[in-house]
Amino acid sequence: MTTKNTSQPVTRRDFLKLGIGALSALALLEVGGASLIFLQPRSLEGEFGGMVTAGLVDSFPIGSVVEFTNGRFYLVRSHDGGFLAVYRRCTHLGCTVEWEAQENRFFCPCHASSFDLVGNVENTPAPRALDTFPITIDAGQIIVDTGTIQTRDAFAPDQLVYA
Ligand code: FES
């Protein structure tokens, strides 16, 4: 009695095709996985671009200026108790302004523009007041929306937010 072998031997060409197919599938899986991670929405809570909780109203003395580095703003409490969240980007060419407490001003180190406590231009070349962010006060907590930049030519009293 004779038996017939029906299985075909695997050729080198078949083996290479199988290997290339497996590697391609693996590469597609990696790209797909990386894309999913990249496309996931990232929470900006507490960072620039998102909502930043600055703290309780009473923790900011009258006339104080407190920098929030992660939110890229200064929280200003004016002399009548109102709040202003001042974007620290200079309105000339975008450098970061610094608060100089002894001079009671914001100063831009790039071209020496300066701004008063509420962000009005004192020294050019900055063309207009520093931008601000909207503030809401909820149960005594000051919350700054750093995803919404408010441009302005100059300070006006109705820009202040009160508790
Ligand atoms: S960038 Fe601030 S003065 Fe030029």
Describe this structure in words.
The structure is a single chain. This protein is an alpha+beta fold. Helices cover 17% and strands 26% of the residues. It starts with 11 loop residues before the first helix and ends in an 18-residue tail after the last strand. The relative contact order is 0.15. FE2/S2 (inorganic) cluster binds next to loops.
Largest sheet: 4 strands, antiparallel
Helix amount, in percent?
A: 10-25%
Roughly what is the average pLDDT, rounded to an integer? 88
Total beta strands: 11
Q: What is the highest CATH level, the class of the largest domain?
A: Mainly Beta
Q: Indicate how many domains the architecture comprises.
A: 2
CATH superfamily of the largest domain: Rieske [2Fe-2S] iron-sulphur domain
- Give the number of helices: 1
Q: What key phrases describe this protein's structure?
A:
163 residues; alpha+beta; Rieske Iron-sulfur Protein; four-stranded antiparallel beta sheet; 1 helix; 26% strand; binds FE2/S2 (inorganic) cluster
Helix and strand layout, with pairings?
Layout: H1 12-39, E1 51-56, E2 65-68, E3 73-77, E4 83-87, E5 98-100, E6 105-107, E7 114-115, E8 121-123, E9 132-133, E10 135-138, E11 141-145
Antiparallel strand pairs: 1-11, 2-3, 3-4, 4-9, 5-6, 6-7, 7-8, 10-11
Bound molecules: FE2/S2 (inorganic) cluster.
FE2/S2 (inorganic) cluster (FES) binds at residues 90, 92-95, 108, 110-111, 113, 125-126.
